[in-house]
Amino acid sequence: MNTIECIKTRRSIRKFLPDPIPQKTIEMLIGVAAWAPSWKNTQTTRYIALTGNEKNAIAEIALGGNNRSITENAPLLIALCSEKHISGCNPDGSYRDRFGTHWESFDSGIACQTLCLAAHDLGIGTVIMGIYDPQKAHEYLKLPESIQVSALIAAGIPAENPDPRPRKDVSELLTFFHE
């Protein structure tokens, strides 16, 4: 699959087959996600793979809304995390500009999308879940204060093939600036 086709055909998958994803496949996905660009190549994104009881426990503790049921039928949940106070920071941890944590979030977002596109290319569906309690997820995962949970991603072989949602026309999204 070429890059543009991969981008245009990737969907958020909320129903999965129960088939487990082999550890080698998960390692390959993270290896590909590691190629995502980051501020000054700091590569601060980290990944925690949860399956079975651990996946269900964090879902029960930290997920809200429909995300809990989505996670129950997904064989894999990835906690996408990032090291704090490195991306966009001076050596002493102070932020270089007024954007603060903007670069940490930006770098995690790029890594997240890279992971999801690589998964799609391998026939693995994903959904990035934003309705979760980051503090409860952080505590469950026993992370140090220097690491934050940026997103939770359910993954598995898709049991659905949703139609694409409408996209805005380029004329609505693009402005050419001329003085």
UniProtKB/TrEMBL annotation:
Q: Which InterPro entries match?
A: Nitroreductase (IPR029479), Nitroreductase-like (IPR000415)
* Domain Nitroreductase positions: 7-156
- Would the keyword rRNA-binding be found if you checked this record's keyword annotation? no
Keyword flag Oxidoreductase? yes
Per its UniProt record, what SUPFAM superfamilies does this chain match?
FMN-dependent nitroreductase-like
Please list the GO terms describing molecular function: oxidoreductase activity
Q: Which UniProt keywords apply?
A: Oxidoreductase
One Pfam family recorded for the sequence: Nitroreductase
Q: Which family does it belong to?
A: Belongs to the nitroreductase family.
PANTHER family documented for this protein: NAD(P)H NITROREDUCTASE YDGI-RELATED (PTHR43673), NADH DEHYDROGENASE_NAD(P)H NITROREDUCTASE XCC3605-RELATED (PTHR43673:SF10)
Q: What is this protein called?
A: Nitroreductase
What organism is recorded for this protein?
A: Flexilinea flocculi
> Top-down, what is the taxonomic lineage of the species of origin?
Bacteria, Bacillati, Chloroflexota, Anaerolineae, Anaerolineales
